[in-house]
Design the sequence.
């Protein structure tokens, strides 16, 4: 077949394509066998080399997968068809009332990201926290900003480094805000926050931590990509009332369902699992023993239900 096809001058190795697109080497090889795309050349050592046009194609495919489209259909599309699909507004993607309420502010922050004005960006975000308070900042500014940034990424309107610049700036401001909240001592619930091993995105987790902390919970964060066995060990060591997980659309749906089922089996029966995030499978396949918390605004309601006699205070 193409085992000795000369690579284009700007071709990338499979490792570079994995880093650039977010698609694993295994996925790239499977698609090559199953769908006939991508079609890498080979260098003198027989190693795969991917032309730049195929890498661009793969980037758009990955963005559309994150929006919920199936790869089998996407890889067969021409680049123009893919771009048209990426430009099509998603269902429910219209601006929320919160985003409209702070439209001018959100647009200003987005412009600062696009113009790479990091110091001004962090100053504006910090001023927002001071004016609005941490809870409203997280729910009414950061949540719609995440949607705006995500939509821009899906449509190829921002670069990876710009999304990282935004995420890092938000994390700095949120962590500073969380650090000023008085710790509640031993009052329940104790909330362990993390993500499953395949989930690298931690911004939603940090936003949830801010709300939990403001609601008087004692929060223990493990950061992202914690092995399931270690989540269970940490929950036992604390001890923990609630394991709160964040799941983005980029997390493979089968891995998410299997990971939640495995974690449920490993945790003590009285330790609850609460799952937030916008992964579509969360609303399609409810799991026994796992509570879906659809948004940040729902955390206070869920906590009120938990506190209304559902669990005694821990000794």
Sequence:
């Amino acid at each position: 077949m193409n085992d000795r096809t000369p690579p284009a001058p700007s071709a990338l190795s499979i490792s570079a394509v994995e880093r650039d697109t977010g698609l694993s080497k295994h996925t790239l090889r499977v698609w090559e066998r199953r769908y006939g795309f991508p079609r890498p050349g080979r260098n003198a050592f027989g190693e795969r080399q991917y032309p730049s046009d195929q890498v661009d194609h793969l980037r758009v495919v990955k963005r559309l997968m994150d929006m919920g489209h199936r790869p089998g259909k996407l890889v067969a599309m021409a680049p123009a068809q893919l771009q048209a699909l990426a430009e099509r507004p998603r269902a429910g993607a219209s601006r929320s009332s919160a985003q409209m309420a702070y439209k001018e502010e959100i647009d200003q922050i987005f412009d600062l990201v696009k113009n790479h004005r990091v110091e001004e960006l962090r100053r504006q975000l910090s001023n927002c926290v001071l004016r609005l308070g941490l809870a409203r900042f997280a729910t009414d500014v950061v949540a719609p900003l995440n949607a705006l940034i995500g939509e821009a990424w899906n449509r190829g309107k921002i670069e990876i480094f710009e999304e990282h610049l935004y995420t890092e700036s938000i994390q700095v401001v949120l962590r500073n805000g969380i650090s000023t909240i008085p710790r509640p001592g031993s009052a329940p619930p104790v909330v362990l926050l993390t993500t499953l091993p395949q989930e690298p995105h931690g911004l939603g987790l940090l936003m949830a931590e801010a709300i939990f902390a403001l609601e008087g919970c004692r929060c223990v964060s493990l950061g992202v990509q914690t092995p399931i066995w270690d989540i269970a060990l940490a929950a036992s060591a604390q001890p923990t009332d609630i394991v709160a997980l964040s799941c983005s659309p980029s997390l493979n749906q089968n891995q998410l369902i299997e990971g939640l089922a495995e974690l449920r089996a490993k945790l003590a029966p009285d330790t609850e699992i609460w799952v937030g995030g916008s992964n579509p499978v969360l609303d399609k396949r409810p799991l026994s023993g796992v509570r879906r918390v659809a948004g940040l605004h729902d955390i206070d309601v869920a906590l009120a239900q938990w506190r209304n006699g559902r669990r005694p205070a821990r000794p």
Q: What stands out?
A: Confidence is low (pLDDT under 50) at residues 91-96. Residues 134-154 form the longest helix (21 residues). The longest strand covers residues 190-194. The two ends are 68 Å apart (CA to CA).
